[in-house]
Specification:
Layout (H helix, E strand, L loop, with lengths): L1 E2 L5 E5 L2 E4 H21 L8 H27 L1 H6 L14 H19 L3 H8 L4 H13 L14 E2 L8 E2 L2 H20 L8 H17 L19 H29 L1
Helix pairs in contact: 1-2, 1-6, 2-4, 5-8, 6-7, 7-8, 8-9
Length: about 260
């Protein structure tokens, strides 16, 4: 067993405090910009580095605004009803992946209109760029000692003092880092390295993330303000991931069916 005693503050300059979690966002955006530029420089990519920079800019706005909106609406809606202005209290922290995803979806829609690119051409391009940021975010969660797991007697259990109970718990943040960050990146990066039917890479991202997130939720402590939200065992994370699994599977089927029809036609 190990007691979590990591300082969540990376740099403190007087009243200014920079948290590791915030720096992880920079890692995510920087890695997406770098990898996107790398893909754009390939002959016949159909992308310019300027377009990639613009996409990352609008995507970052979508992540931040959507992530905050999702956290407030999906996880703290009662508090929002009591104090609607709390939505804008971003300095208090609180972000939701699923809300951030909705923000990115909206940003892709704007980018598609601006550059006259197919929506799923953009989605397929950006999907492999996301997992490193997801993984970095989970490392930020672990450093901050938040979003901890359920109690465990395994030797790798971690005691998070912020829980107030000093019970060893699953380091579920690290499980998510491994699956949502490392595994998802490796699969999508190599899967998208070869030509795939339109929608296939987007579908693979949605399907795998939904499966990985739903799986780790069995080891993650349900949000205290919500508990289990469906069937007495499903967490909000699992409920929100279920549509991703379904949509991802549908997109994959449609992508390969359309590709087969073109080949036979």
């Amino acid at each position: 067993m190990w007691v979590h005693e990591i300082d969540p503050i990376a740099v403190a300059l007087g009243p200014l405090k920079i948290h590791w979690y915030g720096l992880m966002y920079l890692v995510g955006f920087a890695s997406a910009w770098y990898l996107g530029g790398k893909r754009a420089r390939r002959p016949g990519s159909g992308w310019t580095e300027e377009q990639v920079s613009d996409l990352i800019f609008w995507g970052a706005i979508g992540v931040v605004l959507g992530g905050r909106f999702g956290y407030v609406v999906f996880y703290n809606f009662d508090q929002f009803l009591d104090d609607p202005l709390w939505l804008f209290a971003v300095w208090e922290g609180g972000m939701s992946f699923h809300g951030g995803l909705l923000g990115v979806i909206a940003a892709i829609g704007y980018f598609s209109h601006k550059y006259k690119k197919s929506y799923f051409d953009i989605g397929d391009f950006v999907a492999p760029l996301i997992p490193i940021g997801l993984g970095a975010g989970r490392i930020g969660n672990f450093i901050g000692g938040e979003l901890w797991g359920r109690p465990t007697d395994q030797t790798w259990g971690v005691i998070f003092p912020r829980t107030g109970d000093m019970i060893a718990r699953h380091p579920s943040q690290l499980y998510e880092f491994a699956l949502e960050g490392v595994v998802l990146f490796v699969v999508l990066w190599f899967y998208s390295a070869k030509p795939r039917p339109k929608m296939a890479v987007s579908g693979m991202f949605l399907l795998l993330y939904g499966i990985f997130r739903s799986s780790v939720e069995f080891f993650r402590q349900p949000d205290v303000q919500l508990g289990f939200v469906a069937l007495d065992w499903m967490t909000m994370g699992q409920v929100l991931s279920l549509p991703m699994i379904v949509l991802g599977g549908v997109l994959l089927v449609l992508a390969y069916r359309s590709n087969a029809e073109k080949a036979s036609g």
